[in-house]
Amino acid sequence: MPRRRAKRKASREAAQPEPGKATMPRKKRARMGYMISSVAERFSLHPQTLRLYEREGLLTPSRSEGNTRLYTEEDLERLETILNLTRELGVNLAGIEVILNMREKMEDLQEEMEDFVTFVNRELERMRDQAMQERFRTALVRVGPRVRTEADEGDRQHQPQTQKGGGS
């Protein structure tokens, strides 16, 4: 399950039931949800329209033990998208299916890219750490006070003398 969907599911499960909202025991696909009549009223739809969207595979509400459709917040967000596409943009149901599938694929690809970038960043950091450790291990030389040798004194005598005092 993609991370975003898992986060949404966790936040839904933590939420308290609202008035008019049915709750289910924690069994198969146990979620809180809105019943078809309240969803239809909220979005000014006929319940048959919601059933049609389910038959066409555009919505997949969960079911209670009594087989009642229960629409989650995620289902309602998806329904808003469907209604926007049909009402505002005039897209037919086949077009909506294509758009929603493409959208899901794009979200999945985005998540894969984020995971890949995270992996690459971790690897780069690990490689940097190893490179730095290798540099410290091999490149550090102890530096102590410099001891003057006779060779240093000989070099000093062969250097040209500069006149102090400035004048001509």
Fold and architecture overview:
With 168 residues, the protein is mostly helical. It has two domains: 7-91, Multidrug-efflux Transporter Regulator, Chain: A, Domain 2 (Orthogonal Bundle); 93-138. It has six helices and four strands. Strands 1-2-4-3 form a four-stranded antiparallel sheet. The longest helix has 47 residues, at 93-139. The radius of gyration is 35 Å and the shape is rod-shaped. The protein starts with a helix and ends in a 10-residue tail after the last helix.
Order of helices and strands: HEEHHEEHHH
Strand share of the residues? 5-15%
β-strand number = 4
Q: Taking strands numbered 1, 2, ... along the chain, how are they ordered across the largest sheet?
A: 1-2-4-3
